[in-house]
Amino acid sequence: xxxxxxxxxxxxxxxxxxxxxxxxxxxxxxxxxxxxxxxxxxxxxxxxxxxxxxxxxxxxxxxxxxxxxxxxxxxxxxxxxxxxxxxxxxxxxxxxxxxxxxxxxxxxxxxxxxxxxxxxxxxxxxxxxxxxxxxxxxxxxxxxxxxxxxxxxxxxxxxxxxxxxxxxxxxxxxxxxxxxxxxxxxxxxxxxxxxxxxxxxxxxxxxxxxxxxxxxxxxxxxxxxxxxxxxxxxxxxxxxxxxxxxxxxxxxxxxxxxxxxxxxxxxxxxxxxxxxxxxxxxxxxxxxxxxxxxxxxxxxxxxxxxxxxxxxxxxxxxxxxxxxxxxxxxxxxxxxxxxxxxxxxxxxxxxxxxxxxxxxxxxxxxxxxxxxxxxxxxxxxxxxxxxxxxxxxxxxxxxxxxxxxxxxxxxxxxxxxxxxxxxxxxxxxxxxxxxxxxxxx
Length: 441
Known about the structure:
Strand order of the largest sheet: 1-5-6-11-10-9-7-8
Number of domains: 2
Number of helices: 15
Mean pLDDT: 88
CATH class of the largest domain: Alpha Beta
Shape: elongated
Low-confidence stretches: none
Number of strands: 16
Strand content: 15-25%
CATH architecture of the largest domain: 2-Layer Sandwich
Helix content: 25-40%
Radius of gyration: 27 Å
Structural class: alpha+beta
């Protein structure tokens, strides 16, 4: 007999965890749709040349094989590692069918062969929104996406987050001023600052001298402690066009977000935010859960200027955001910021009293379901009342309906509220509307 054993770092949920994940997905989808982001899906598998068009580490991509009898036939198809590169192919293929600006939402799973670590899975849900244009994306698109994400996180009913905003023009100028040439490599190292004990050995491997390393560490330390105005003043008196552009863009986004009723305590300009992948350009953003002096990254945002260039002569610049849903849920669960107090979708359990009364109990259940009240009829009429009530209590079903001999004589249904063990007798013809009114409160 085989021992049941899941594949490592592929998570699976207990019912109470799955209900929370489903709830979060629905809230995210509703908020995305409220801002007119259209849902799409792309295949879970892609050609390798598609995925490698903008990816820098092919060791993290899963290869899909077809098994037939004792013969394995290999096909050049691979699991997507995110939703962005497949979207670039999608836009390039269907550009004549799309209306630009194309506002899209994409909430699906991806797969990535990452080094195992806490809260980073090899199969995970992403919740992306993107605004794609066929010529130019104005800065207000960044504001639109960021305000949507702010409202989405607010809709998830936790407030322990802060959105960090940066423009890589500041970071690029800063590294140029240190006479550093391997700018993209250094930005990739800076992006790993929260994932490793120290980035000093990685900077030394790129042949940076002690003075250059100390200047970079000074910037990172400064960014952690200063508010947004001090961060900009650190750069503002320097006469450099690239730097001035970056500061003006940051100020526009920050001030417009405040005018969009986003509270200032949830925003921070942070010149150390980098996002290391090679297809992210200029404006980058990252959201952290903040709890008891700890911070965990749970979503990020960036611009792409040329992501479609491998598939089309048109560049299709865009701005996009991703909430890492699987990671978000794991962090919130571990730091006790969400309660998993439900183990079923059912709101009502109808007790299965006697075989002779089964048809009436079925009718009660069916009437509830016609009104979209999530209900179930206990399966075994031979089970004792205590066992059926224990079942409802264990699954945290809030309401129990009892229709038995005494109730049948009076044409009533007994309603038991499990949270208080309060009981009421309701006329059988009124029970559906009564439950409906309770649930609306």
